[in-house]
Amino acid sequence: MSKKPTPTTRLAVWKEAASQGGPSRRLIDWSDEAAWAKIARAALDLDSGFDEKWNGPVRKAFKDFRLNPKDPYDWRLLLTLYAAAHASRGRPVKWNSESLCDLLRKISAAREKRPNAKPSEIYRSLVRPKAAYSGKSVDYLKHGHRLALDLERNDILRNARDLVAAGYLDVLRVSYQEKGWTITAADEKRIKDADTVLDDALELIGAPLGRWAKK
User: Fold this and answer.
1) Are 129 and 115 in contact (CB under 8 A)?
2) Cβ atoms within 10 Å of 77's Cβ, excluding its own
3) How far apart are CA 142 and CA 129, in angstroms?
4) pLDDT in tens, 40-73
5) What is the C-alpha to C-alpha distance for residues 95 and 38, in angstroms, rounded to an integer?
6) 101 Cβ partners below 8 Å, 6+ apart?
7) Which residue in 39, 52, 84, 41 sits closest to 65, CA to CA?
8) What is the pLDDT of residues 119-162, one digit of tens each?
9) 142/137 Cα distance (integer angstroms)
10) Three-class SS of residue 166?
11) DSSP-derived secondary structure letter, 11
């Protein structure tokens, strides 16, 4: 009996297919802004006549991450997050960035339904029979949740945090320039470590309630 394809094996097949060329590999002067804009608009239109079997998963990814497919920058962000998750993927591990972010989204969804529930109650709800982590233990989820919020372990969340922090830094930089100041390493660390930045990053990956605020 053949083994079920894994994300890694599927990615290898698609990589080989992509190397054979795509619809954009034509004699186009990409320095022509009008030509580039016309093709880019068509390529990034999920409501176009492109094969729905390809549009569907992309549309779902935008929905899961709460991004706007009309916004080119959101396309870039989505690509960045998925590339970070797949670029160094090798043999599947117990927890990886994708599964950790999925856990954060499931915890967030459970908390939306039960906003006053304690962490232990949320964990138990996710391991009950027929739930997302049926058969797992509460300790398994608690450990996974700690890993999911560990920016050294969760590449996707860290990249989202860095993107959010960059936006805050741009605003701060403009304010500083008006006063003749410059951004320091301490400023960058303060913003990156801010709870509000982490919360914005969690919302960006579709898990706005993925952590309990510290009291």
Assistant:
1) no
2) 17
3) 18
4) 877 788 776 666 667 778 888 888 888 888 888 8
5) 41
6) 148, 154, 156, 157, 205, 206, 207
7) 84
8) 999 999 999 999 999 989 999 999 999 999 999 999 999 999 99
9) 9
10) helix
11) H
| Contact assessment for residue 144 and residue 103, using Cβ atoms and an 8 Å cutoff | yes
| Nearest of 164, 155, 172, 168 to residue 198 by alpha carbon | 164
87-115 burial, b at 16+ Cβ within 10 Å, e below that, comes to eeeeeeeebbbbbbbbbbbbbbbbbeeee
3-state helix, strand, coil in the chain (%, to 5): 60, 0, 40
**Residues in the chain, total:** 215
The angle formed by the CA atoms of residues 97, 102 and 106, to the nearest 5 degrees, is 150
The answer, yes or no, to whether residue 19 has pLDDT greater than 90, is no
Q: Who's near 17: CB < 8 A, 6+ residues apart?
A: none
Rounded CA-CA distance 210/143 in Å is 14
119 token code pair: 């962490």
Residue 50 tokens, joined = 């492109």
pTM for this entry: 0.58
